[in-house]
Automatic annotation (TrEMBL):
Catalytic residues (positions): 101, 138 (proton donor/acceptor), 213 (proton acceptor)
Annotated site location: Transition state stabilizer: 140
Biological process terms in GO annotation: base-excision repair
Name of this protein: exodeoxyribonuclease III
Catalysed transformations (reactions): Exonucleolytic cleavage in the 3'- to 5'-direction to yield nucleoside 5'-phosphates
Binding site for Mg(2+) 1: 18, 138, 140, 213
Cofactor: how bound: Probably binds two magnesium or manganese ions per subunit.
Cofactor annotation: Mg(2+); Mn(2+)
Positions annotated to bind Mg(2+) 2: 212
Length: 223
């Protein structure tokens, strides 16, 4: 948590994936930084019995933002427990932020991967004419390879929804498996407007970071 606490001092808003907390444990996210507001989803949102059966949670998404931004932000109900959505008011076009944790690149997860993409497609269709769309998170697929079954599915989804990266998006790895044998770029910011993300930085792995992902930081243009 120390690494995340230090990181939050530099951010206005933070999207988390894989917090591994059950719903009754979500208060721990609020304790990370008392200057941040939190909304979260957990794997047991639709099935509370899971938290009584499993020793620990898995998956889960959350968005944290500074308290002074709270009057601009609305939490939306769209999507499953893999998708957390907020709307942020701006001076002109409101921003619709989709934070997602996609299923892992296991072939047994292909149907869930397709279903999560389909959910996001419906969300984007609903809001794209009235909002700037920004999709971020752990996509568990890459635009720089065709090694897993998820890679072509992700590319097809992006093309069909006219989502793209900033032209200067770094081609740098964001995931490093704990076995030391696999790595890749699977964490992204995609938008329907190329200039929505003005600057993207992929941080280096540091000893204090206990995750197998590194943070990806974007500066967002306020329209």
């Amino acid at each position: 948590m120390t690494y995340l606490k230090q990181l939050l001092k530099k951010l206005d808003l933070c999207c988390l994936q894989e917090h591994w907390l059950f719903k009754p444990e979500q208060h721990l996210l609020h304790d990370i930084d008392t200057n941040m507001i939190v909304t979260a989803k957990s794997i047991d949102d639709e099935n509370p019995e899971l938290s009584m059966i499993a020793r620990r949670g898995y998956g889960g998404v959350a968005i944290l933002w500074k308290k002074e931004m709270d009057d601009k932000i609305s939490v939306m109900v769209d999507g499953s427990n893999r998708i957390q959505v907020i709307q942020m008011e701006t001076d002109n076009t409101p921003l619709f932020l989709i934070n997602v944790y996609m299923p892992s690149d296991n072939k047994d997860m292909d149907n869930e991967y397709k279903d999560t993409l389909a959910q996001m497609t419906e969300i984007i269709k609903t809001y794209r004419n009235t909002h700037d769309i920004l999709l971020c998170g752990d996509l568990n697929g890459s635009i720089h390879r065709s090694k897993t079954s998820h890679d072509p599915l992700l590319k097809k989804f992006l093309a069909e929804n006219s989502l793209e990266l900033n032209q200067e998006y770094p081609e740098k790895k964001t995931f490093f498996h704990h076995n030391g044998k696999s790595s890749g770029q699977i964490d992204y910011f995609f938008s329907a407007s190329e200039d929505l993300t003005q600057y993207v930085q992929i941080l280096d792995m540091e000893a204090e970071n206990t995750s197998d992902h590194v943070p990806v930081i974007a500066t967002i243009k306020e329209n």
